[in-house]
Structure formats: structure tokens, C-alpha cells
């Protein structure tokens, strides 16, 4: 068995499940937004504001942001472990990407719950 | 008919870097040589050209190489399949080159060794042999035929980037062959050995292995079965 500590999951299976579960949430969110934009004509500020004022949409958006964090963490770790062989550089890059993903999550929470 | 060929050449004792050497060969009209036949004719012209070959009928897996961008066995690849285009022959990609078309497959064999490619049975040993029903035996079809030519693993980017951690399509095909064998009792140990982020899960299912396998096998399908077994074991 090959060990790893920098990925999100506790094992390969855990990563595999988390990647797919987060992908389902992200895909659902993306499809929902596209469909909403398509059927809400005209798409005014009030309509858009009304959508994000509703609690279910806030929760859905928060779920999508968390899913994005998990998906990006695992995906970036996989790409970095493929292409960046220098361990120090890989560690720094992984740190930068994960911190950035957390920053996006924090910013997203503040924006969504500020509506 | 004149056939233009370019062959990857590298002799680490003499060359500072690899290069492509152009050759030209007159072959009889209507004849359909295999790439191995072409290489053997070239070796008559230039005895310094190095490549592996043995059975010359697609059984031993010695002459795996990259022909016009696709891995395959030189002995069963028709020159006519390239439709008269210039033939470019390179060693299997991603592996250290020993000389010319000969690559060092140590890492490939280490991964094969890692999956314990032998039956493990800690049950009562039968007097003569472990019997299988025809149905149980049928599970091994499409798995046992692998000749370990390394065409699949060396066509796999995941194996290129992590040959020390990702078992690779060939090794995983063999791993599933033992996981599904009714006579093997070490399923749990085998799965535990594979349950990490690299050994199996570095396969992203791009199916290069299926595309190049000279025996028409489907390692991606076997890897999918292993992933299912690992999932069933974990959830």
C-alpha cells in the first residue's frame, strides 16, 4: 500500500467517493443555474436577488462551495502528484491551492449569507 | 516498393542524446511484411541496431514498441497497416532506454511482483489439484491471456508519472485475475494492499491500455471491477 497524507480523503476509496459525490453536487448546481437563467426571462436583478434570498438556495450554494473545495483539493493533489516531482515545491503549491480554495469558501459564505 | 523508416537510436556508451536514424528498404510489391521483419532486414544492413524479439508470433511479448505513435508488437503489426506512410519506430514510451528500442522494464516487473501474481490458498490442500467449475474458470477469460508485453502500461500517462506507485493496467489486470479466481483465498489481503490513492485509483479510465493491447484485452474493465470490490469493501 502506498501512503498519502496531503490528499483530502483518508484512502483511495474515500477520495474516489468524495470526488464523485462533490461532482454530483456541482453538476446539479450548474444545471440548476443554467435552467433557472433559461426559464427566468427577463432575468432581472430582483429575480436573481429573490433566488439567493431563499434559504434553500443559500444552503444549496453553500453545499456547492464546499463541494468545490473538496473536488479542487483532491483534483489538484492528483495533478500535482502527477506533474510536480519536487516534494518541497509540491507541498508549497498544494498549500497555496488549498488555502485559496478555503478563501473562496469563506468569501462565498460571507457573500451568500449577506444577501 | 521503397519503404522509408525512421528508427530511434540511442547508445548511452557513445551518444550524448537520442536521435532518429533514417533507413530505406526495398520490399517486393504485394508482400506484406510485419514490422519485425523490417527490423530484422535493417539489422542485416546495420548490425548495431538493438531490439528485443523472440517468438515472432505475438506470444512472448518481447518486441513491444511504439510504431507511428501507437504501442504494439512488431511481430504482428503489418507494415501495410500504415498505408504506405513513413514508418517511425520508437521504444515503449516512459521507460528508461537501455539501447535503441530496448527499454528497462524493471519498474513494470516490480509492479507485477507487488500484486502477488500467484494463487494463495490457506485452506485444506487437496491431494491432487484445486478444482474449478466451468463457470468459475470462465471468470478468468480475458484476464489470463496477458503476455506482459508492457504495451498497455507504457501507453498509460498515470503509469508514466507514477511508475513506482501506480500498479498500471497490466499489473491490475493480473491483480483482478487473482481476485476473481475461485481457488484464491487472499482476496481481503489483496484488496487491502491495493487500497490507497495510487495503486488502483490513479486509473482515470482513459482506455489507452484497451486501445493498444495486442491481445485485445480490456484492463480498464478489470480495473473497474477492482474499484467496485474496493468500494463494496469500504462502504
TrEMBL record, chain A:
Transmembrane segments: 17-39, 59-80, 92-113
Swiss-Prot/TrEMBL cofactor(s): heme
Top-rank taxon, per record: Bacteria
Membrane topology according to the record: Multi-pass membrane protein
Keyword tags: Cell inner membrane, Cell membrane, Electron transport, Heme, Iron, Membrane, Metal-binding, Transmembrane, Transmembrane helix, Transport, Tricarboxylic acid cycle
Binding residues annotated for a ubiquinone, in chain numbering: 83
Pathway assigned in UniProt: Carbohydrate metabolism; tricarboxylic acid cycle
GO cellular component entries: plasma membrane
Biological function: Membrane-anchoring subunit of succinate dehydrogenase (SDH).
Annotated GO biological process: cytochrome complex assembly; tricarboxylic acid cycle
Binding, heme: 71
Protein name: Succinate dehydrogenase hydrophobic membrane anchor subunit
Lineage: Bacteria, Pseudomonadati, Pseudomonadota, Gammaproteobacteria, Alteromonadales
Main location class: membrane
Stretches of the chain forming a coiled coil according to its record: none
One Gene Ontology term of the molecular function aspect: heme binding
Record bears the keyword rRNA processing: no
Cofactor detail note: The heme is bound between the two transmembrane subunits.
Subcellular localization, as worded in the UniProt entry: Cell inner membrane
Matches recorded under InterPro entries: SQR/QFR_C/D, Succ_DH_anchor, SuccDH_FuR_B_TM-su
Keyword Cell membrane: yes
From TrEMBL, chain B:
Enzyme Commission number: 1.3.5.1
GO biological process: respiratory electron transport chain; tricarboxylic acid cycle
Reaction catalysis annotation: a quinone + succinate = fumarate + a quinol; a menaquinone + succinate = a menaquinol + fumarate
Cofactor needs: [2Fe-2S] cluster; [3Fe-4S] cluster; [4Fe-4S] cluster
Keyword Iron-sulfur annotated: yes
Gene3D superfamilies xrefs: 3.10.20.30, Alpha-helical ferredoxin
Keywords of this entry: 2Fe-2S, 3Fe-4S, 4Fe-4S, Electron transport, Iron, Iron-sulfur, Metal-binding, Oxidoreductase, Transport, Tricarboxylic acid cycle, Ubiquinone
Single GO MF descriptor: succinate dehydrogenase (quinone) activity
Residue stretches making up the 2Fe-2S ferredoxin-type domain: 12-95
Coiled-coil region(s): none
Cofactor binding description: Binds 1 [2Fe-2S] cluster.
Pathway: Carbohydrate metabolism; tricarboxylic acid cycle; fumarate from succinate (bacterial route): step 1/1
Group of enzyme by EC: oxidoreductase
Function statement: Two distinct, membrane-bound, FAD-containing enzymes are responsible for the catalysis of fumarate and succinate interconversion; the fumarate reductase is used in anaerobic growth, and the succinate dehydrogenase is used in aerobic growth.
NCBIfam families: dhsB (TIGR00384), PRK05950.1 (NF004616)
Family: Belongs to the succinate dehydrogenase/fumarate reductase iron-sulfur protein family.
Name of this chain's protein: Fumarate reductase iron-sulfur subunit
Organism per entry: Shewanella fodinae
Amino acid at each position: 500500500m502506498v501512503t498519502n497524507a496531503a490528499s483530502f480523503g483518508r484512502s483511495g476509496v474515500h477520495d474516489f467517493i468524495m470526488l464523485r459525490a462533490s461532482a454530483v453536487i456541482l453538476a446539479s448546481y450548474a444545471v440548476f443555474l443554467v435552467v433557472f437563467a433559461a426559464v427566468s426571462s427577463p432575468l432581472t436583478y430582483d429575480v436573481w436577488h429573490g433566488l439567493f434570498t431563499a434559504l434553500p438556495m443559500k444552503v444549496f450554494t453553500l453545499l456547492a462551495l464546499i463541494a468545490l473545495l473538496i473536488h479542487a483539493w483532491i483534483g489538484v493533489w492528483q495533478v500535482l502528484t502527477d506533474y510536480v516531482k519536487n516534494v518541497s515545491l509540491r507541498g508549497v503549491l498544494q498549500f497555496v491551492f488549498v488555502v485559496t480554495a478555503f478563501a473562496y469558501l469563506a468569501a462565498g459564505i460571507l457573500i451568500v449569507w449577506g444577501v | 516498393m521503397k519503404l522509408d523508416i525512421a528508427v530511434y537510436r540511442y547508445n548511452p556508451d557513445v551518444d550524448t542524446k537520442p536521435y532518429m536514424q533514417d533507413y530505406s528498404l526495398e520490399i517486393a510489391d504485394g508482400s506484406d511484411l510485419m514490422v519485425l521483419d523490417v527490423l530484422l532486414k535493417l539489422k542485416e544492413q546495420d548490425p548495431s541496431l538493438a531490439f528485443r524479439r523472440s517468438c515472432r508470433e505475438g506470444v512472448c511479448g518481447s518486441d513491444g514498441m511504439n510504431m507511428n505513435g501507437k504501442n504494439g508488437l512488431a511481430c504482428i503489426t503489418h507494415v501495410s497497416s500504415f498505408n504506405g506512410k513513413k514508418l517511425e519506430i520508437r521504444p515503449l514510451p516512459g521507460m528508461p532506454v537501455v539501447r535503441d528500442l530496448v527499454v528497462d522494464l524493471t519498474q513494470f516487473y516490480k509492479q507485477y511482483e507487488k500484486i502477488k501474481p500467484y494463487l494463495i490458498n490457506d485452506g485444506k490442500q487437496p491431494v491432487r489439484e484445486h478444482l474449478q467449475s466451468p463457470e468459475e474458470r470462465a471468470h478468468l477469460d480475458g484476464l489470463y491471456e496477458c503476455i506482459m508485453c508492457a504495451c498497455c502500461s507504457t501507453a498509460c500517462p498515470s503509469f508514466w508519472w507514477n511508475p513506482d506507485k501506480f500498479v498500471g493496467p497490466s499489473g491490475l489486470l493480473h491483480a483482478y485475475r487473482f481476485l476473481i479466481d475461485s481457488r484464491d483465498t487472499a482476496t481481503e489481503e489483496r484488496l487491502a494492499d491495493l487500497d490507497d490513492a495510487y495503486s488502483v485509483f490513479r486509473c482515470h479510465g482513459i482506455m489507452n491500455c484497451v486501445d493498444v493491447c495486442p491481445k485485445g484485452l480490456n484492463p480498464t474493465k478489470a480495473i473497474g471491477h477492482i474499484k467496485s470490490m474496493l468500494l463494496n469493501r469500504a462502504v
